[in-house]
Amino acid sequence: MEQVKSERYSHQLITGISFGLTSGVITALGMIVGLHSATSSKLAVVAGIIVMAIADGLADAAGLHMAEEIELEKGEVKHTPREIWLTTLFTFLSVSGVILSFAIPILIFPLKIAVFLAIGWGMLLLIFFNFYTTKINKENPIKLISEHILLAVFVVIVSYGVGNLIAKWLK
Questions:
Q1: How crowded is residue 38: how many other Cβ atoms within 10 Å of its Cβ?
Q2: Which residue in 22, 18, 17, 35 sits closest to 156, CA to CA?
């Protein structure tokens, strides 16, 4: 019985971590690059990271909470309240933890260097996690890794452009 329970709750852990890591990395990269290009302020970037770790962590956790509540299987509610709350907790912790990890290079290094280090950190997290995922699912890692790296690069480019536009509009 305990084996079945731990296997059942592993879905909540995997869902929370996989969603949280991917969302946290991509959101953090966009925010860091966007705030840096708009303000060139270490204070703004660090404040953004901390606020976003809390706000985005709670928002993502609430979103997955709702998704788990309405997920049906054969016309029946698929998850118990305990499973739903575990997914909520794991999502919040993973999103917040991943986003907060980006504060380390920002606090230690000059901002320009730290932004590049943060981008590298985010790409490494995506590569390693997606490689691990494809090994479990026995899939080709290149396809999944490429998809998520391209998405992250797209977010970084768009955020950089938007940050520059905001800087020009407000000056």
A1: 21
A2: 35
CA-closest candidate to residue 156, choices 16, 66, 50, 32: 32
Residues facing 76 on adjacent strands: 73
Return d(Cα 97, Cα 161) in angstroms, integer: 27
In angstroms and rounded to an integer, the radius of gyration of the C-alpha atoms of the chain is 18
- The amino acid sitting at 47 is A
pTM of the model: 0.86
Q: Name the phi and psi angles at 59, rounded to 5.
A: -65, -45
Q: Is pLDDT at 60 greater than 70 in this prediction?
A: yes
Q: How far is CA 51 from the centre of its chain?
A: 14
Beta-bridge partners for 73: 76
Residue 18 has pLDDT above 60, yes or no: yes
Of residues 51, 56, 28, 55, the one with CA closest to residue 114: 28
> What is the b/e burial string over 95-133, where b = at least 16 CB atoms within 10 angstroms of the residue's CB?
bbebbbbbbebbeeeebeebbebbbebbbebbeebbeeb
158: amino acid identity, one letter: V
Helix (H, G, I), strand (E, B) or coil at 50: helix
